[in-house]
Design goal:
It contains seven helices and ten strands. With 227 residues, it is an alpha/beta fold. The strands form two sheets. Strands 6-7-8-3-9-10 form a six-stranded mixed beta sheet, sandwiched between helices. Strands 2-1-4-5 form a four-stranded antiparallel beta sheet. Helix 5 packs parallel to helix 6.
């Protein structure tokens, strides 16, 4: 599913090269639920961005679902991301000028093959499944944090991607709501989704089947899969 081979990422800081990642090797198999942990600035978000093709400036090889991301053109990468990878963020990244159902259907408008008359219908069905049937035409500003994150997850799942990449998905939520989101991810994983979560919260890493720790741009611990 995911394979990183000797991956390094550098930034230019005050005229000097600074490593965000150093020669990282990593393999994540299909169907895993993985938490990536580490201190602030350790490189975990950079790692997630490389796996998701959001950052393409690196050395080494990043392969996702058998595709070498460096060999994809920008349009190919955009189409691959839109269809095969779902993203969930801490601050939801919903568009306030769209309704919740329009936010969920948004991936369809970036995919020529996905633009169809039933896009809104499919989005509405997803929101109903997530308990938001009465919020279809609401503005995201009128939703609670937990409701916003459920909308964001529904959007990420619009094309039923094989991979979900989540960056601190419970970081803006209270304990109870955060636990509900964690349980959603566990249920999705049982359905077969591969899920990688960047987190600093122990409640998230404890729910994962595998925990990878990164410090100073290097993978320092890779816990074995847990049943």
């Amino acid at each position: 599913m995911i394979r990183l081979t000797q991956v390094s990422k550098q930034y230019l800081n005050s005229g000097e090269d600074e490593f965000a990642l150093r020669r990282c090797d990593l393999t994540i198999e299909e169907g895993e639920l993985v938490a990536i942990v580490g201190t602030s600035g350790s490189g975990k978000t950079t790692l997630l961005n490389l796996i998701g093709g959001l950052d393409r400036d690196y050395s080494g090889q990043v392969s996702v679902m058998g595709r070498d991301l460096a060999k994809l053109t920008d349009p190919e990468m955009a189409a691959f991301r839109n269809r095969e990878i779902g993203f969930v963020f801490q601050h939801f990244n919903l568009l306030d000028h769209l309704t919740t159902v329009e936010n969920v259907a948004l991936p369809a408008y970036f995919d020529p093959d996905g633009r169809s008359a039933d896009a809104h219908k499919r989005a509405a069905e997803a929101l109903t499944e997530f308990g938001l049937a009465d919020k279809l035409d609401d503005n995201p500003n009128n939703l609670s944090g937990g409701q916003k994150q459920r909308v964001a997850i529904a959007r990420a799942l619009f094309f039923k991607p094989r991979l979900l990449l989540c960056d601190e998905p419970t970081g803006s939520l209270d304990t109870k709501t955060g636990q509900q989101i964690i349980e959603m991810f566990q249920a999705l994983n049982r359905e077969g989704y591969t899920i990688v979560i960047i987190t600093h919260e122990s409640r998230v890493s404890e729910a994962a089947k595998r925990v990878i720790r990164i410090e100073d741009g290097q993978i320092v611990d890779d816990g074995r899969a847990r049943s």
